[in-house]
Design brief:
Number of helices: 6
Helix content: 10-25%
Shape: globular
Oligomer: single chain
Number of strands: 23
Structural class: alpha+beta
Order of helices and strands: EEHEEEEEEHEEHEEEEEEEHEHEEHEEE
Distance between the termini: 29 Å
Largest sheet: 13 strands, mixed
Strand content: 35-45%
């Protein structure tokens, strides 16, 4: 929390349409939900009262059925101010408009919106990428869509990779592997968890953190991942593997899923035969990425705060007061900002980490 934060702060959001403050929408807001996750494409659902007088003295009627104010493609932005600074939690285009006519309540207006990444769904391509990395291909997909890329991930290198009649959003996700995709401030960030260096946001059960549930689960853990293929140029088989050492550099102190599952189940390995690597180096990269993807999800948690607009996909949270096994730093992989007239502003987040703390 900022040292200069106001003693009392409004939990109601600020709403802008095409960059202009929409005070009538703010006053008529019943509830909203803005969600973003690691797969990209943030979404919004907002419900508004749609009955009243447009101006004092005018007759009562529908107040938001005006395309000058609300229409498909208009830019809708939502911001909250809980620390004295206005922080945007959603910025996208209106993609859905609906209405409800309840039996015992006035009519309501529903607005759906998605951020600019949604436009990639409407672009379908067939093309060949030669001697390019996953990061190169992802950057080209975004640049072709007039989006500014920040591909902090190189990923595997491909001698030849064919995209066949696939929409650009699916292609982007395929090339991003386990990286987090997020559109913020006009830039699409694609970052591996190990590359994220933001200062963790401290959350305590005695203050901001309302509730948190977490589970360390061996069901999807493997002690080793092995990738097999054939090197055509060298005319020899490819066999590469990765173990717990692939995840240890980015994990904190404690026990790792790949280490524990090997102790519990002696044959906990995963053999991948359909990855089609062209070289041993490519196979090794694929094995390490697959191992890290599983290991990062060893601990998965779901938390709710009293409204934290600073939280976004890729944030880190330092959770305290949870005991030696589960306290520590987690990576946020999904965030939902909610507002309604009962609980006010709350933030729900999903988080993960690869290490289980040692006993006290």
């Amino acid at each position: 929390m900022s040292a200069e934060a106001p003693f009392l702060a409004s939990g109601r959001p600020q709403i802008k349409v095409d960059g202009q403050r929409a005070e009538r929408l703010e006053a008529d807001l019943i509830r909203l939900e803005a969600r973003a996750d690691a797969a990209g494409v943030a979404s919004l659902e907002a419900i508004f009262l749609n009955w009243g007088s447009r101006e004092p003295g005018q007759p009562v009627d529908y107040v938001h059925f005006d395309t000058a104010d609300i229409d498909f493609g208009k830019r809708l932005a939502i911001a909250f101010s809980t620390t004295g600074d206005e922080l945007t939690v959603f910025d996208g285009l209106i993609t859905g408009i609906g209405a409800a006519y309840p039996e015992l309540r006035p009519p309501e207006l529903t607005l759906l919106a998605e951020d600019a990444l949604a436009g990639l769904r409407y672009r379908r391509r067939t093309r060949l990428s030669e001697n390019q990395s996953d990061g190169d291909i992802a950057g080209r997909i975004l640049s072709d869509a007039s989006l500014s890329p920040d591909a902090g991930r190189s990923g595997a290198s491909h001698v030849a990779l064919l995209q066949v009649n696939e929409d650009e959003l699916s292609a982007l996700r395929s090339r991003s592997g386990d990286a987090l995709i997020a559109l913020r401030d006009g830039t699409v960030h694609i970052n591996e968890a190990s590359a994220l260096t933001d200062t963790p946001i401290r959350l305590s059960r005695e203050n901001e953190l309302i509730r948190f549930t977490v589970l360390a689960d061996l069901a999807h853990q493997r002690g080793e991942v092995r990738v097999h293929g054939y090197d055509v140029a060298a005319k020899e088989a490819i066999h590469e593997s990765a173990g717990a050492d692939a995840i240890r550099p980015e994990a904190g102190p404690g026990r790792l899923g790949p280490e524990i599952v090997t102790r519990v189940f002696a044959n906990a390995a995963d053999d991948l035969h359909l990855e089609a690597p062209a070289t041993g180096a490519e196979a090794r990269t694929l094995a390490e990425a697959a191992l890290r993807r599983r290991a990062r999800r060893f601990l998965r948690g779901l938390g709710v705060t009293r409204g934290t607009p600073q939280l976004h996909v890729g944030s880190k949270v330092e959770l305290v007061d949870l005991g030696p096994w589960f306290a520590g730093t987690y990576l946020v992989t999904a965030v939902t900002h909610r507002f309604d007239q009962v609980e006010g502003y709350r933030t729900e987040f999903e988080a993960q980490r690869p290490n289980l703390g040692e006993s006290a």
